[in-house]
Input
Amino acid sequence: MQETCFDEVVELITTDDPRYKREAYLFLREALDFTQKLIARENQGQTRHVSGQELLEGIRQYALQEFGPMSATVLEEWGVHGCRDFGEIVFNMVETGLLAKTRTDRREDFEGGYDFTEAFRKPFLPKGKLPQPAKQPAG
Output
């Protein structure tokens, strides 16, 4: 898809659904490319459809690579506060023809992916600042 067409469609999407900034859509497209390359590497160069859970993992890795300890802050600035938001963005793109889906792909595939604090903040916390597990009551 040509860049101008993509930009025009994203402009329409963000006008209709202003929850997420334009940058979130651009990031998701780049994260999908990143994920497809990871999968192709694992499958001797063969590409295939990416599941919602695979895309979430690719998004996590790509965000950490691109933004490091600022990952959660950047995503939240774009309106993305959890994995469910990635599903909304994906399906906004599907509904406008920017992405394709299979018959089994659903928005719900993005629910319960990972906690943003665990995925994006915890890897950068100093060892002494990691949350301590709750103590079990004696008895």
